[in-house]
């Protein structure tokens, strides 16, 4: 009986190891993992401070934008597009839960699926007019994937699935493997984090060959008082690390990595 139990445990462990191995994504050029750097809202600091740093390191990022915010620094956003950064859709009016005081006049609880669909389409049209690109990637404002209230609460993930190649959430604790849902990609916050904290996320993702998506908002020095700040010093440490070829990290925009996975990991 003991031998039988031991045999069954061995088979179970082997199956789990194979399953974990199968979930690892086979990355190009011998890389062991992938990272996408993303920022939300089209905040001014992203093109005034952030993109010059990214361009210095020759790293392309994904910026999920709200059209009205793009207009404030339009020339900077046009330059970002010309320099190869990806522009995603972050909704027309950035609706979030009414639990945030600043969102109560535009609460996602007051939305219907039809209204959301129309506004996402309109946002794409306005972004194309401003920047000459039509977004294929989307990020849920505040990470909320639902709309409506009480018994009428509904997920709008199916709407995003039909309109976009990917949908990115926010404030998750894990990275993405072959079990990923392209309409609900996990994203780890890099706002107000030091490099040591981010590096631990990288190492965890590398152990399993995963795709780590990092998300932020403002970009600036730590003296800036905000809960949503990607610190410049951390960012430069991060860029030094991921650009070091010995670390074997593929860094690319969300759309590029998603397209690679879809094309090369069909089985």
Question: How are helices and strands ordered from N to C?
Answer: HEHEHHEHEEEHEEHEEEHEH
What is the typical, i.e. mean, pLDDT?
A: 91
Task: Name the poorly predicted regions.
Answer: 1-21
Query: How large is the radius of gyration?
Result: 20 Å
From the 3D structure, determine the CATH topology: TIM Barrel
Number of strands: 12
End-to-end CA span: 38 Å
Shape: globular
Q: Can you tell me about this structure?
A:
The longest helix is centred in the first third of the chain and has 22 residues, at 2-23. This protein has helices at 2-23, 44-57, 67-70, 74-82, 113-131, 157-163, 195-207, 232-243, 254-264; strands at residues 33-40, 62-65, 86-89, 137-139, 146-147, 154-155, 166-168, 188-189, 211-216, 218-220, 229-231, 249-251. A hairpin with a 6-residue loop joins strand 5 (146-147) and strand 6 (154-155). It contains nine helices and twelve strands. It has one domain (29-264): Glycoside hydrolase/deacetylase (TIM Barrel). Mean pLDDT is 91; it is low at 1-21. With 267 residues, the protein is α/β, with parallel strands linked by helices. The two termini are 38 Å apart.
Set down the secondary structure blueprint.
Blueprint: H1 2-23, E1 33-40, H2 44-57, E2 62-65, H3 67-70, H4 74-82, E3 86-89, H5 113-131, E4 137-139, E5 146-147, E6 154-155, H6 157-163, E7 166-168, E8 188-189, H7 195-207, E9 211-216, E10 218-220, E11 229-231, H8 232-243, E12 249-251, H9 254-264
Parallel strand pairs: 1-2, 1-9, 1-12, 2-3, 4-7, 8-9, 10-11
Antiparallel strand pairs: 5-6
Helix pairs in contact: 2-8
């Amino acid at each position: 009986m003991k031998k039988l139990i031991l045999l069954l445990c061995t088979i179970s462990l082997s199956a789990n190891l194979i399953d974990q191995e199968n979930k690892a994504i086979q990355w190009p050029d011998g890389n062991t993992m992938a990272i996408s750097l993303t920022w939300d809202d089209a905040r001014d600091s992203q093109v005034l401070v952030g993109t010059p740093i990214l361009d210095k390191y020759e790293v392309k990022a994904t910026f999920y934008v709200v059209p009205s915010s793009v207009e404030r620094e339009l020339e900077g956003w046009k330059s970002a597009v010309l320099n190869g950064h990806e522009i995603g859709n972050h909704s027309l009016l950035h609706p979030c839960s009414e639990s945030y005081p600043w969102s109560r006049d535009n609460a996602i609880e007051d939305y219907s699926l039809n209204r959301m669909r129309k506004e996402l389409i309109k946002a794409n049209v306005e972004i194309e007019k401003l920047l000459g690109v039509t977004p294929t990637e989307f990020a849920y404002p505040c990470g909320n994937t639902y709309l409506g209230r009480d018994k009428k609460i509904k997920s709008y993930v199916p709407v995003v699935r039909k309109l976009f190649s990917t949908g990115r959430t926010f404030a998750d604790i894990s990275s993405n493997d072959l079990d990923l849902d392209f309409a609900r990609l996990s994203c780890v916050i890099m706002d107000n984090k030091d490099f040591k904290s981010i590096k631990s996320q990288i190492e965890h993702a590398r152990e399993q060959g995963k795709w780590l998506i990092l998300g932020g908002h403002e970009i600036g020095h730590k003296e800036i008082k905000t809960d949503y700040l990607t610190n410049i010093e951390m960012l430069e440490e991060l860029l030094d690390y991921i650009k070091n070829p010995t670390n074997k990290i593929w860094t690319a925009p969300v759309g590029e990595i998603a397209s690679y996975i879809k094309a090369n990991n069909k089985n």
